[in-house]
Design brief:
The protein has 253 residues and is mainly β. It has one helix at residues 2-28, and strands at residues 36-38, 43-44, 47-53, 60-64, 73-74, 80-83, 87-97, 100-111, 119-124, 127-129, 133-139, 146-152, 160-166, 177-180, 188-193, 199-201, 209-216, 223-233, 239-250. The chain starts with a helix and ends with a strand.
Length: 253
C-alpha cells in the first residue's frame, strides 16, 4: 500500500510540474498583434494602393481588400491592390502566428474621377466607324493565354471588329507586332462584320492586317495601346480596307 501511495504521489507531482511548465511556455509566446499602414490613401481611381504590414509575432497573413473582386484575398506580406472605382472600402488583415491570430480592419478611400479615356477607332473603306462599346479580355482556356478585343456600336451590334490573338513565343509585351492573314488563322485572326451582316476575315485575305502594341500589360487591369491597319476578305473575294485603327483599352478581367 505504501508503494502504491508513493507511485500515485509521484504521478501527481509529475502532472502538476508538466502543467506548470506548459503554462510558463504559453506565457513566453507573445500574442499576435495585427496592424498595417495604407501607403497612398485618397488617390484617384484607377489606383494601385500599397499596404505596409506592421504586424508582430505573426508568420502568415490574409488580406481582404473589400471590393468584392476575385483577387480580393492574398497571402502576401506587403501587397498592392488596384481599385477601379470610386468609393470607400474596408480592408481587413488577419495575421496568424504561434500563439493564434488577430485581425484589424481599416478604411481606404478612393476619390476623384477616372482621367483615363479608353477608345477604339478605325475606318472601313475610308468611312469612320463609330465604336461605342469596346472590351479587352484575357482568356486562358486550354492552358494558352489569349487576347480578345471587341468593338461595336452603341447597341452592341454591327459593325463589329473582333481581334483574337494567342500568345506568341516571345510572350505578350510592349512593342509586340502581330500579323494577321490567311496563314495565321485561327490562332491570330481579325474579323469584321459590316452593317449588312457580312463577315470579313484576315483568314480569307492573303495581305491581312498588322497590329502594333506600343503598350501591352497582360495582367488584371493591365493597359494596352495599339495601332492597326490592313484588309479583311471573304471566301468570295470581297475585301474591306481597315485603316487608321487605334485603341487604348484596359483588360476587364
Amino acid at each position: 500500500m505504501k508503494m502504491k501511495n508513493v507511485i500515485l504521489l509521484l504521478l501527481t507531482i509529475s502532472v502538476l510540474v508538466s502543467c506548470h511548465e506548459k503554462g510558463d511556455i504559453d506565457k513566453l509566446i507573445p500574442p499576435v498583434d495585427a496592424d498595417f499602414v495604407i501607403g497612398n490613401d485618397n488617390c484617384k481611381f484607377p489606383c494601385d494602393v500599397s499596404f505596409i504590414n506592421r504586424s508582430e509575432y505573426a508568420t502568415n497573413y490574409r488580406w481582404n481588400f473589400g471590393d468584392g473582386r476575385a483577387s480580393e484575398e492574398t497571402h502576401e506580406i506587403n501587397p498592392t491592390h488596384r481599385y477601379r472605382e470610386e468609393g470607400t472600402y474596408e480592408v481587413t488583415l488577419v495575421a496568424h502566428g504561434p500563439s493564434g491570430y488577430a485581425a484589424v480592419t481599416k478604411t481606404v478611400t478612393i476619390s476623384g474621377t477616372n482621367t483615363v479615356s479608353y477608345f477604339m477607332n478605325y475606318k472601313a473603306d475610308g468611312e469612320a466607324v463609330s465604336v461605342m462599346q469596346f472590351s479587352a479580355t484575357r482568356d486562358t482556356t486550354g492552358g494558352v493565354n489569349k487576347i480578345i478585343i471587341s468593338g461595336t456600336d452603341a447597341s452592341g451590334q454591327k459593325p463589329e471588329l473582333l481581334i483574337y490573338l494567342e500568345e506568341p513565343t516571345d510572350g505578350f509585351s510592349n512593342g509586340l507586332i502581330a500579323d494577321f492573314n490567311e496563314t495565321t488563322a485561327p490562332t491570330q485572326e481579325i474579323t469584321y462584320m459590316d452593317t449588312s451582316g457580312t463577315v470579313f476575315s484576315t483568314g480569307e485575305d492573303p495581305a491581312g492586317m498588322s497590329v502594333e502594341f506600343t503598350i501591352l500589360d497582360y495582367a488584371l487591369d493591365g493597359m494596352m495601346e495599339a495601332s492597326f491597319s490592313g484588309s479583311v476578305g471573304t471566301s468570295g473575294g470581297e475585301t474591306v480596307d481597315i485603316t487608321d485603327g487605334t485603341l487604348k483599352l484596359m483588360f476587364d478581367n
